[in-house]
Amino acid sequence: MNDGYNSVLASIESSSPTPGGGAVAALALSHGIALARMVAALTVGRDKWASGHASAESFLAESHTWTADALDMAQADCDAFDAVMAAYRLPKGEEKEIVLRKDAIRSANFGAAKSPLNIAKFCLKVMDSLSPLASDGNANAITDAGSAAYMVLAATNAAALNVRINLGSLGDASSDFESEINQILESVTNSHEKIIKIVENRM
Fold first, then answer.
1. What structural domains does the chain harbor?
2. Cα–Cα distance between 198 and 146 in angstroms, integer?
3. What is the rounded distance in angstroms from the CA atom of residue 48 to the CA atom of residue 121?
4. In sequence order, what DSSP letters do the residues of 3-62 get, joined into one string?
5. Cα 68–71–73 angle (5° rounding)?
6. Is the peptide bond before 19 cis (omega within 30 degrees of 0)?
7. pTM for this model (two decimals)
8. Nearest Cα to 149, choosing from 137, 162, 166?
9. pLDDT tens digits for 115-155?
């Protein structure tokens, strides 16, 4: 198991700015999804947890691409940051070059904020899907359901930071971005608290 992880962690801890916090948020999300899918897989087909079969089967069907989707978001975040760096490296000697560079930077900054916002939106979708698993899933895996919720919460908070760091470069769009990420974070946090209460009651 460690072989693949070592490669990813080596990439993160290098002097390269990517993958950074946004990408790691998406990686954390992918772990939460994988844990939740494990809980669902441990519920389906076990007579003792028949009351949870429907929700587990539904989750497995809905989430079958989610882990890969989260990994794609991690790459997209790296690409978004690389686009910002590339925009700042554009020539700025002539007036036309200055205008083109300014437009490229504005567009790239928008993408750098949009990427973690998309991650946070996905976090909300995932968190909202965890409650039935926590309520009716295999109780022997209840702490895994709780751990999944904590991973998604961490991913959301990390994504929110990476949205906020870009707000100053978004001009008039900054207020919309800030409002949306605040709403997402509040919703995810509220859902997480409810899920953890369920988990603790079933332990």
1. 21-73+113-202 (1.20.120.680)
2. 9
3. 34
4. HHHHHHHHHHTSSSS-S-HHHHHHHHHHHHHHHHHHHHHHHTT-GGGGGGHHHHHHHHHH
5. 115
6. yes
7. 0.94
8. 137
9. 999 999 999 999 999 999 999 999 999 999 999 999 999 99
